[in-house]
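step=encode ok
step=design start
structure_in=
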């Protein structure tokens, strides 16, 4: 831990650059908390989702699925809450054509057609929504997620993969052409002080981004502190039975080396009495700690009560996680100085 005076001197020079990579519902929680900090935030968002409203829009007009991007834009927007609620509003079941679609998803899809690509559309929308930071789709075209399971079988598409309820061995992404991230994505990774992976679905929200060839190469070359925010609970169809060390090992194996510098893991007891017993075997089980497994991968461990437990659900405490991320980013800035 650095002294307050040293940290203040670093902050006066420039804000720490924090890049958060992922998708799903966990990402906005961390981004909202980081937004309260004095940091330059870049969110790199997965584009392989094929479920829900995003999947329907993707199938109809072949654009990058907009759902995760929509949630990230809202989390970093400086617009009043009432205006952000409009962007998040979903049509109800009485609307036969629009049922289940979020207005924001339709706006992103329309802008993508108008601009000719998703990246420029998101930059335009970021300006309109007064986004504090940068939001970059990890690719400019929809990606298809592929998986091989431990039994040797394979599946294609996020929904199809997770519905198999098999242990996943590896994943990769495909597209009409070789998948490639925009230059801004690579520049953000290479210029970051800290890169944050997660929280989020290991195989369907985090790894799809890293499997884009130039993103994976940038992750191997960057000098940034690479931080993994480990999920608190296991996830059906993806991480049943995996420890925190297993999560880190799988990311490292996909990148081809020990590239996770620090893991933020939960040390608080989860009150399982609030969950239904029939869920215990798969979905709602706490991720077990394996300190020796993490140490063997040269991974520093920061353990704390990172939970926000309410209404029978478990979330990450965004503020606690963000504080650790900023501290690590400042340490990296100071080392470079």
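sequence_out=
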């Amino acid at each position: 831990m650095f002294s307050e005076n040293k940290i203040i001197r670093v902050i006066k020079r420039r804000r720490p650059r924090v890049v958060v990579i992922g998708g799903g519902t966990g990402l906005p929680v961390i981004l909202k908390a980081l937004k309260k900090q004095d940091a330059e935030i870049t969110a790199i968002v997965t584009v392989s989702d094929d479920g829900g409203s995003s999947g329907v829009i993707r199938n109809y007009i072949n654009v990058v699925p907009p759902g995760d991007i929509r949630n990230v834009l809202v989390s970093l927007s400086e617009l009043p809450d009432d205006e952000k609620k409009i962007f998040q509003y979903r049509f109800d079941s009485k609307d036969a054509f629009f049922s289940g679609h979020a207005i924001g998803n339709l706006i992103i899809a329309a802008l993508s057609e108008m601009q000719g690509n998703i990246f420029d559309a998101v930059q335009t929308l970021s300006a309109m929504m007064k986004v504090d930071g940068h939001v970059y789709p990890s690719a400019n075209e929809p990606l298809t997620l592929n998986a091989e399971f431990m039994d040797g079988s394979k599946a294609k598409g996020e929904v199809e993969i997770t519905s198999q309820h098999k242990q996943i061995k590896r994943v990769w992404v495909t597209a009409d052409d070789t998948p490639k991230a925009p230059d801004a994505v690579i520049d953000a990774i290479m210029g970051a002080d800290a890169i944050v992976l997660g929280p989020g679905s290991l195989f369907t929200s985090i790894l799809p981004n890293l499997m884009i060839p130039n993103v994976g190469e940038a992750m191997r070359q960057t000098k940034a502190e690479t931080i993994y925010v480990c999920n608190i609970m296991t996830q059906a169809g993806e991480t049943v039975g995996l420890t925190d060390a297993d999560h880190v090992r799988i990311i490292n194996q996909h990148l081809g080396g020990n590239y996770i510098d620090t893991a933020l893991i939960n040390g608080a007891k989860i009150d399982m009495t609030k969950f239904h017993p029939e869920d215990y075997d798969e979905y709602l089980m706490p991720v077990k700690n394996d300190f020796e497994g993490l140490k063997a991968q040269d991974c520093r461990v920061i353990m704390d009560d990172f939970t926000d437990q309410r209404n029978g659900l478990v979330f990450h405490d965004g503020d606690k996680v963000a504080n650790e991320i900023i501290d690590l980013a400042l340490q990296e800035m100071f080392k470079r100085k």
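step=design ok
step=annotate ok -> The radius of gyration is 19 Å.
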